[in-house]
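Before a colleague's protein record goes any further, I have to sign it off. Alongside the sequence sits a line of tokens, each denoting a local backbone shape. I want your independent view on whether this chain really folds as the tokens say. Where you disagree with what is written, explain briefly why. This is what I was given:
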Amino acid sequence: MEKASPWPVEGNGFTLVEMMVALFIFAMLSVAGVIMLRGAVDSDEVTAENLGQMAEMQRFVSLMEADLSQALPRPPRDERGDRTAAFASETGGGEEALLKFTRGGQSNINGEARSNLERVEYRLADGNLERWRYRMTDGGAIDEPAILISDLDSIELRFRDKRGQWSDRWETERLADLPRAVEIQFDQKERRYRHLFLVGTGYL
């Protein structure tokens, strides 16, 4: 005959209170994990967006700097054969160009029978800053634009003349005149940007 144990026998299961506490702790850990994961995803998205904007801005600055530094005092001919200003800026909107000029140093990888000069335009269309290029320096067809910067809210230009004076409009009496520098300011996604470019560094 077995003797009864003097000690109480403990059950092998959990009480309802213990189960509730365990589930509560598990739920809190799950919520914390989801919050951390969401934060990491949001951080990655913000980082990717910022890197994209930085790359876009760097492309714009590099291309604008290359174009303006090689601008030439060469008045082109329009469709009627008349000489026009070597450097022009139109701010009336529509199809008008914010900047229009001829630059040198165009590469000719394919060895085509053409000049090393290139006629380019910068236009603002639907909040995008676009770069257009003519196939010929005097008239001729124009290629499809390349979008340099998107989501622009506004853009302003200033021009420094040979006397060192700044003006919001580029006006000159001689067709071959170039500004000494161009200042561009614009707003993009509630940020203000300002860039200063020298024009035709070899131009006297």
Observations:
- Strands lie at 87-88, 99-103, 118-125, 128-133, 146-149, 152-160, 166-167, 181-188, 191-198.
- The longest strand covers residues 152-160.
- The chain has a mean pLDDT of 80.
